[in-house]
Amino acid sequence: MCANSTRTDDGVSIEILDPRGEVNYDATPIAERLNSLEGATIGLLDNSKSNADVFLEAVGERLKSEYGVDEVVYRRKDKSPIPADAIADQLVSQCDAVVNAYGDCGSCTSWCVYDSIDLEKKGTPVATINSDEFIKLGQSEAQSLSMPGLPLVMVSHPMGDLEEPKVLDRAENALEEIVAVLTTDRDELEDEYAERYLAADEELSDESLYCPIDL
To answer: Distance (Å, rounded) from C-alpha 78 to C-alpha 75?
Structure first.
């Protein structure tokens, strides 16, 4: 809790308490990245959102055909607003890196980021996919979980209601950044992504917590 003092016109001193307080933390670094995807095993973490499987399978196929990835390991959560837990442990033991898709609403974005940070802390680099409507929320979650440099790959919103060809286009458009997130020097990535979507001292607006609906 923060306190500020002020005086009234008649000289009375008043202390004003701000219940929001200030959050201080030591930032946790992201995992070391891969030197190359050649011969790597890449995990595909599907958080069960609609079209996440289509997006991830397209990314996995391209990583194998064009970047020399040896194998992809696909895992799907039962539902999005829960931690990956045992699935995350499997990916850590079997994979060199992970692509995690995706956050496109409030709760699923929070858990998507949580799962990525869990994997990063265990030493597995992750490319985390968030839609543009919720990318600031994702950045805020990463900051609150002490990993402000978590690289978030932004795709256009919505994702769930798209026809398959459009999902494939978005996977194609995101591919180059996904590869960069998994292979670029850690310090360089953190400098690039730490405040890419939301400054450290910027407040999250109400609009970043829900998806606007055009009527």
So the answer is: 10
With 0-12 / 13-18 / 19 or more C-beta atoms within 10 angstroms meaning exposed / middle / buried, residue 165 is exposed
Comparing C-alpha atoms, which of 77, 141, 68, 70 is closest to residue 105? Answer: 141
Contact 84, 118 (CB under 8 A): yes
What global pTM score does this model have? 0.85
Could you tell me how many residues make up the chain? 215
Q: Closest by alpha carbon to 139, among 129, 127, 152?
A: 152
Cis ω for the linkage preceding 158 (within 30 of 0)? yes
Q: What are the start-end ranges of the H helices in 122-163?
A: 135-144
Choose among 125, 128, 161: nearest CA to 49: 161
Give the separation between CA 171 and CA 142, rounded to whole angstroms: 23
Query: pLDDT tens for residues 40-54?
Result: 999 999 999 999 999
User: Is the preceding omega at residue 102 within 30 degrees of 0, hence cis?
Assistant: yes
Spatial contact of 108 and 47, defined as CB atoms under 8 Å apart: yes
Instruction: Return the ∠ at Cα 73 (arms to 119 and 59), rounded to 5°.
Output: 90
Distance of CA 162 to the CA centre of its chain: 21
